[in-house]
Amino acid sequence: MLHTFVAYVEDLPGVLTRVASLFRRLNININSLTVGRSERVGLSRLTLTCDSSAEAGHRIRASLFKLENVVDVDDIAKDPAVTRELALIKVAATPRNRAQIFDLVEVFRARIVDLTSESLMIEMTGVESKIEGLIEVLREDEGRILEICRSGKMTMRRGHHISSVLHAMGSGEPDPAELAAEAHDESVARAPEP
Amino acid sequence: MGTKPNTQAPGANAHLTTPTKLTGAEIIWATLVGEGVTTVFGYPGGTILPAYDALRKFPIKHVLVRHEQGAAHMADGYARASGKVGVAIATSGPGSTNLVTGIATAMLDSIPIVCITANVSSKVLGSDAFQEVDITGITLPVTKHNFLVNKTEDLAGVLRQAFQIARSGRPGPVLVDITKDAEQASAIFDFEAAKPRAYRPHPMLCVEESGLAQAAELIRNAKRPVILAGHGVIESGAMEQVRTLAERAQVPVALTLLGLGGFPASHPLNLGMMGMHGEAWVNHAIQESDLLIACGMRFDDRVTGTLATYALKAKKIHIEIDPAEINKNVKADVALVGDLREVLEDLLPRISGRDGSAWLKSIQASKGAVAVHDIKNLPDSGHLYAAHVMHDLWRITGGNAIVVTDVGQHQMWEAQYFHHEHPRSLITSGGLGTMGFALPAAIGAKFACPDQEVWVVAGDGGFQMTAAELATIVQEKIKINIAIVNNGYLGMVRQWQEFFYESNYEATPLVSPDFVKLADAHGIAGRAVRTRSEVSSAVEEARSAPGAFLINFLVEKEESVYPMIPAGKALHEMIRRPGKNPLEESADDK
Question: Residue B198: how many CB atoms within 10 A of its CB?
Fold first, then answer.
């Protein structure tokens, strides 16, 4: 099954290697990995997706927590969450056939972010299937797509779920009891998918 | 010998209480002193020289090893014998890569050591400078954590954190790599301010009331329960709690190799070692069991045999500090994820007296029924078997010694025939199975416990891997007794060739030097033993010798360790002792 992990890690050299090395050691391929700054100073937030057995989720999460630089790990699994990906797509377009692409971009609610006499660049944000859809349509004209750059998935739980990091950092020292409780918290109210 | 007395003045430790400006090199030692370190094992070299230059100012004993692998094993042996953090020091490049086998050994057995390596100056880091290697990259998968420090002001904090990480939770090795310029520059050393943030337990630790109640219920209702006691019993210091559980609920105890000593061998509820070379009645008891209470063990493949047929009738209670071990190999019906001693202290009030006599009787009966032809009970045929050596060693020392084994047949014979009453009396590389471990680890153990009798038990193959450390013994003037079980083969591999590769003894016959002469060349006394009748007197001679002593036991060449579960077979599918001799074995050691 597809696993989605969201982790808060210390923003230090080598931390990404430690995370990646864990998956390498387990011989699990990382499908997608995005990393960026989070709401907390000194902590990066990453979203990682991989294919593995359903039972592997517990062990991966437990192993991620064993990394000293990992502060929090959330196993999103099939819980309600918003997942987005950003894609930049450069397509060949002359003044004669631009209009057709403008229409497509409109339909897919994408944007044109660069335009030259021979090409234009489309920026699109959305779920994976929507991006795949646009790419598929663009591919109908052979040779049109010049470059594709995709960010990988970013995931955030729906509802008021707050990571234990926020609790912990807010009060200075992490509260072990609270962290342990949160690690097993199944009670967080989750809004249904709209 | 060439050791200069420490030249620190009285009150030299004032910097531990008053912030003082020190060089990075001085901060390394000052922090170690503050962490309670008294002995380190190391080898100097170009980049670590600033640290060595500062050593004389600090009350720390440095043991010069002959190879950095030895330094890591000594730190490991020191940690296993004392329960404290062992420290190894090495220079950059080959000095640090030589540590790797020792670090992996400590990782696989959860041993707290801190390895300090130096690296080239930060301005040439990553430029393939002389003796530069990416040791934090290399050791990333075999350390609990590692650090690269290139700022003097970070040193004290990082080192203190390294000690905290090494000894907390499930212990393990930590490496701190320090650039030469960080050793040379100065910074204000403030030991108190460098204190790491409070240790954060693994967030997935979980011991719930319901789990404890369920465990107690399972124990109350079990007909054929077995406690599986592992290394965690010793690491957590839960010997008393396990014993109370066993006695109160009348549950027999089977031990892993690293668990030996965690429950007294002489205790009537002690079944002995389980797994690949465990006795038949132990493994049968596990296979027949209806409840396994796993205490600080991880269901290693050497303990379970094939998982497809492992203890299928048993419910499993898994008490373990590492959440990543839960359901890894064996599915737990009740998981109590926390420190073993604390969990058992919570569990014990719920455990009441229980009649286990029927189950204990049936196990006792199976000892007779599975009577094996144990070599130690056979009459003296003029041949010398390793089992005799181990049995006599145990008998003569009364078990009051720290035995440090290498890896292979002799290791299993030691586990079978030397009965360990106390924790930390057996030091052995279980997880990684590192040949060459025994001699250096024994040196470390001797420094941790100078008043204890320490025996190295090694094969002729493994001993030659790290035999250079004989010189370390001499230089440090320490008393260690060495028993080489010499069968002229890489014995365990030969045994596998005999059983599974049609006795094709490819690359296992082994030529060795005359070990007694080798010892003599180092100034170590020794003798060779060829018959069973000489064993006792040789062991006595070694014990009464003033210095280190080596005995070369020339044992039967093609003897195998029985029983044995072939890799990948079920726990009950053992290769049994061959029945050449009709003598019945008694399960007791009378």
Answer: 10
Contact A66 B141 (CB under 8 A): no
Residues of B in contact with A8 (CB under 8 A): none
> Of A79, A104, A135, at which residue does a domain stop?
A79
Best residue in A27, A179, A182 for a mutation probing chain B (most B CBs within 10 Å): A179
Cα(B174)–Cα(B151) distance, integer angstroms: 19
Contacts with A68 from chain B: Cβ below 8 Å? 144-145, 165
Q: How far is CA B83 from the centre of its chain?
A: 11
Total domains, chain A: 2
Residue B561 covered by a domain = no
% of residues, chain B, pLDDT over 90: 88
ipTM exceeds 0.85: yes
- Give the bridge partners for B559, in sequence order: none
Residues B80 and B176 in one domain: yes
Which chain A residue has the Cα nearest residue B337?
Answer: A180
CA distance B204 to chain A (A): 6
Is B319 inside any structural domain? yes
Q: Which residues pair with B148 in a beta bridge?
A: B177
Residue with tokens 């009453």: B421
For chain B, what percent of residues have pLDDT higher than 70?
94
B190-to-B19, B34, B84, B269 alpha-carbon distances in Å: 4, 11, 23, 52
Residue A165 is assigned to a structural domain of this protein: no
Range of the domain at B126: 12-189
Answer yes or no: is B203 within a domain. Answer: no
Q: Which listed residue (B130, B192, B204, B557) is catalytic?
A: B130
What is the arithmetic mean of pLDDT over B214-234? 97
Mean pLDDT in residue range B39-56: 98
Task: Mark whether B130 is an active-site residue.
Answer: yes
B247 flagged as catalytic: no
Enter the pTM of the model: 0.92
In a domain, A174, yes or no: no
Q: What is d(CA A68, CA B183) in angstroms, rounded to the nearest whole number?
A: 25
- List the single best residue of B146, B148, B204, B328 to mutate versus A (max A Cβ within 10 A): B204
* Residue-wise pLDDT tens digits, B189-209: 999 999 999 888 999 999 999
- Supply the CATH number for residue B455's domain: 3.40.50.970
**Residues B77-95: pLDDT tens digits?**
999 999 999 999 999 999 9
| Rounded Cα distance, B156 and A75, in Å | 36
B548 with B405, same domain: the answer is yes
The verdict on A66 touching B (C-beta cutoff 8 Å) is: yes
- pLDDT by residue (tens digit) across A131-187? 999 999 999 887 789 999 999 999 999 886 665 555 554 444 444 454 444 444 443
Are residues B352 and B379 both part of a single domain?
A: no
* B513 upstream amide cis, omega within 30 of 0: no
Give the CATH number for residue A15: 3.30.70.260
Averaged confidence pLDDT in chain B: 93
What domain range is A107 assigned to? Answer: 82-154
